[in-house]
Amino acid sequence: MDYEAAIGLETHVQLRTKSKMWCSCANAFGAPPNTQVCPVCLGLPGVLPVANEEALRLTALTGFLLQCAVAPLAKFDRKNYFYPDMPKNYQITQYDKPSTLQGQVEFEFEQKLARVRITRAHLEEDVGKSFHFDRHSGVDFNRAGVPLMEIVSEPDIASAEMAYSYLNALKDILTYGGVSDCDMEKGMVRCDVNVSVRPQGQKELGAKIEIKNMNSFSGVRRALEYEIPRQIAVLKSGGKLTQETRRWNDDAGITETMRTKEEAHDYRYFPEPDLMPFVPSEAWLDEVRQRVVELPLARKSRFMKDYHLPATDAEAFVNDPDLGNFFEGIARGAKNPKAIANWVINNLRAKMSETQTALSHLKFLPSAIADLTQLVDSGKISTKIAQEVFAEMFATGESPAAIIERKGLAQVSDTGAIESFCNEVILANPKSVADFQAGKEAALNFLKGQVMKLSKGRANPNVVGELLVRKLKG
Amino acid sequence: MHSGSFDAQYVAHLARIALSEEEQRKLGDQLAQILNYVEKLKELDVTGVEPTAHPVPLANVARADEPRASLPAAEALRNAPAQANDLFLVPKIVE
Fold first, then answer.
1. For A2-22, how does the pLDDT look when each residue is reduced to its tens digit (9 = 90+)?
2. Is residue A412's pLDDT more than 80?
3. Stretch B39-68: mean pLDDT, rounded?
């Protein structure tokens, strides 16, 4: 019997705000321990949390980006549990009235459009960070109370690889929308994985196994690559799976039981009495709607369609939005956007990383790249010379036309001048000439190269080719 | 909910409170009585009434996203039973 997996992901993302969720302590990574804390986020008695409006906005924005319904009324609840990184002994979250509901994430997977339904995206708070020593653990509460959004997917994901693609697509959407920086190194995205297997074609899902606290997308993929075959093997050998929580042991490359259903937490959710419900007005939502951006997938298709770019070029501009905007600024209305894309992606990007130059610090005008492609397309300079011109304009900001003029780089199409180069090369390379005449086409390329070299790259290669053939065959 | 069916031991465990058997019995009875009393509310017909999380008709209380100064670490840690390297020390936690 064949089995299939059904995977749902709960993705936790730190929101890009300046301050924490319920207090005005800074939301910034990397400060010395316990220097971004106050009575509210330390859970001291008698304090009153007040919601960060920007976090509410970013949550609604996520709703729009993921095509969710934004709830007309959202409220907050207490999720009660004891753990040293949670100073209040409860986490403020949204239980039965989340901010957003029922959306979807669309992404490319195995050359097709994949769609994963989103159950909800709700707002909650992060916990402190623990460090483990020999006999004790130490807690830093700088992270406690940082706005955290939980995005829950339906079990629409069928494989480890698809889970990986979904997570990357989700990350791209959130980064694009400015919702979160999604910096994995800084722990801004964490994941719980729900996975079950069932005989193919069976309607009901199998026993749900949760793998907790994954902090990398590749970790999620590896955990699933282990866990799915494990579950299938249990069923195939006649065993039974029961609902449980497991942990991923990265060193051993296996998942291990953390707690069974009987030991599951009983969180005793109840409405947070210190926080009022949130009822967004139409005007408020409209303001948030202004911040909706074009999603990566839509941007990719548009770049491919509007500028006739291959997928790889479009992806380069999707992955680097600033570079994409820079390209669009030049390519809009240009005759040869593909050539512009080549210059931007291959040459400009390389030069920028080589010289540690930001787009905002370029010396030349963006339109100079369009000019350069024009000069190549019209035959004024060769592609090879264009490289030289580009290096010069990158270094000094001088216009391509001025550089060509000053250095005398214009392509030589004058047959007289090229003819004398050809004669010289034919005389100097009798063996290659004989080879070509004996039918070795490749010899022509060598001779052509010699002529180009002699002309210092300025001869029009097409004219060179034509002349050589005429001379050698004539 | 009937008197005696209230699991005081379980709730005490959830709240991380240690109760003697005597206390469990006593508090269990008392809490069961309270719940029985509240059960009376079930006699009301609440069809079409939205569950109320807050009795005060107030919504949308929020603050602008502006960071302000936090407590100095020494102040934040002042009540900590144990500390080291500006961290709150707790018994070793490994789940």
1. 999 999 999 999 999 999 999
2. no
3. 88
In 3D, which of A287, A262, A311, A295 has the Cα closest to residue A106?
A295
A9 within 8 A of A192, measured Cβ to Cβ = yes
Q: What local confidence, expressed as pLDDT, does residue B68 receive?
A: 95
Q: Retrieve residue A62's tokens.
A: 């996520």
Give the Cα separation of A343 and A387 in Å (integer): 9
- Rounded to whole angstroms, how far apart are CA atoms A362 and A341? 17
Pick from B10, B70, B83 the residue to mutate for testing the A interface (most A CBs within 10 Å): B70
Per the CB < 8 Å rule, is A130 touching B82? no
pTM beyond 0.90: the answer is: no
ipTM attached to this prediction: 0.86
Cβ–Cβ of A55/B65 closer than 8 Å?
yes
**Inter-chain CB proximity A130 and B56 less than 8 Å:** no
Q: Are A323 and A317 in contact (CB under 8 A)?
A: yes
What end-to-end distance do the CA atoms of chain B give, in Å? 34
**Residue A198, phi then psi, degrees to nearest 5:** -150, 160
Q: Please tell me the distance in Å from B11's CA to the nearest CA on chain A.
A: 10
Distance (Å, rounded) from C-alpha A167 to C-alpha A107?
10
- pLDDT per residue as tens digits for the range A33-71: 999 999 999 999 999 999 999 999 999 999 999 999 999
Q: Does A279 touch chain B (CB under 8 A)?
A: yes
